[in-house]
Amino acid sequence: MARVRAHLRRAAPALVAYAAVRVTGLLALALWAHRRHHGVWPILATHWDADWYLGIADHGYTHHLGTAYDANNLAFFPLYPVLVKAVAVLTPGTRATTGWAIAVACSFLAAWGIHSVGSHLHGRRVGVLLTVLWAALPVGLVEWMGYTESLFTAFAAWSLYAVLTGRWLWAGSLAALSGLTRPTGIALAAAVTVTALLSLRNGFSLRALTAAALAPAGWLVYVGWVGLRLGRWDGYFAVQRLWHNEWDGGAETVRRLREVLGVDSTPELFLVMVTVTLLASMALYVLSAWDRQPLPLLVFTGVLLLIVLGSGGVYFPRARFLLPGFPLLLPAALHLARASPRFRAVCLTAAVLGSAYCSAYMALVWPSAP
């Protein structure tokens, strides 16, 4: 316990900085919402995907595939709504309040884990900068919404930290839980499993072998359960087809990139932001490989990018889907750590203000889900 407290004290500056960035974004949202006579609470806790998760917590999953598009709740993984339902029994307030509180609490756990990864690899300054950059992503508001991104990022950060420090059972267990949280949990499972199996070249380790087997278990269990519930082996993938989330190798992504960048003379600002995020993420992955990031980080972000860019599904949420890919920000954090204090201050200020504006625009002007 003393070690945990010492670890938390070391991360305190990063957590304070994280809170400051997110409070700035929340204030910008509140001021803009007030001018538009719009409530803030529904945006944070009850709209879009949050409504789906609350519905699952209240009524459970459907038993049928159906034929309606964008209507089957089996597309949403179970851990977050299960947590909402369980914690709501023990706390006052509505399930919406509970869901939002879980997301915020998990965002701090995620920030702590992100700092731990950055600090472990490159020192405390990089850890703090990596945390601030993650907080200041253009869709950073999602970290404080009733969504699963904060919970998933917390699992990802601490699982990757566990791999980097040789804690195989923690790594496998957290990866398994991530597979019950989001479809992209398979990316974290791949990172843990590949790294654990390769580590066996240095000598047999029962813990590493157990982690390799355990990491994909959560994802496989849920996908298998959906198949059993619907009475067909491809049940989960049939549900995803009803949500237009079929794999097309990136054809839809390329089409939308060309449309936003070259065809549409007046593209929607939010779609421009999504496009820039996708292009920046690809460039950052190249830089991450050039910097020879540790294998588990490269596998995680590589598979995550492959899933997001290769999907034929809707385009506009893809910046949010990449939010857990915090290792992509390591090249930027390293560059800022070596830069002059003035340059660092200007860049971070611009990032925080840009995040506040983009997040508020996403929530109040963009007509669809983030």
Automatic annotation (TrEMBL):
InterPro entries to which the protein is assigned, alphabetical: PIG-V/Gpi18
* Membrane topology of this protein: Multi-pass membrane protein
Q: Which GO terms describe its biological process?
A: GPI anchor biosynthetic process
Named in its record, the pathway it takes part in is: Glycolipid biosynthesis; glycosylphosphatidylinositol-anchor biosynthesis
Q: Name one GO molecular function term.
A: GPI mannosyltransferase activity
Check the UniProt entry and state the signal peptide residues, or none: none
Q: Which UniProt keywords apply?
A: Endoplasmic reticulum, Glycosyltransferase, GPI-anchor biosynthesis, Membrane, Transferase, Transmembrane, Transmembrane helix
Which terms in the GO cellular component ontology are assigned?
membrane
Residue intervals passing through the bilayer: 12-33, 98-114, 126-144, 208-228, 269-288, 295-315, 321-338, 345-366
Compartments, as annotated in UniProt: Endoplasmic reticulum membrane
Query: What name appears for this protein in its UniProt entry?
Result: Glycosyltransferase RgtA/B/C/D-like domain-containing protein
Query: Which organism is the protein's source?
Result: Streptomyces sp. R41
Name the lineage: Bacteria, Bacillati, Actinomycetota, Actinomycetes, Kitasatosporales
